[in-house]
Amino acid sequence: MTFHRAPPGTPDILPAVPNPDPALFIVAAILQRALCEPCIHIKTGVPRAMLSGYLVRIGEVMTVTATQATCDGCQEQAKVYRIA
Predict the structure, then answer these.
(1) Residue 81 pLDDT exceeds 50
(2) Looking at the domain assignment, is residue 7 inside a domain?
């Protein structure tokens, strides 16, 4: 698969967001797969110390499940999170 850059002066389809909410990256990471905290951190860049707070906040508007299972990212047995 080959990707090509748009010609100079072509407007962006999705404009850059100056300060995106890290919760958006977490939701995108755990929407279709179960990930442990280290894998969520690796995929999103959100510091591990802040993950639990964001997961609680996300859980206020979506169902976040936390179970002991195999992580889809690292294949280790761990507490994994996913959007139900």
Answers:
(1) yes
(2) no
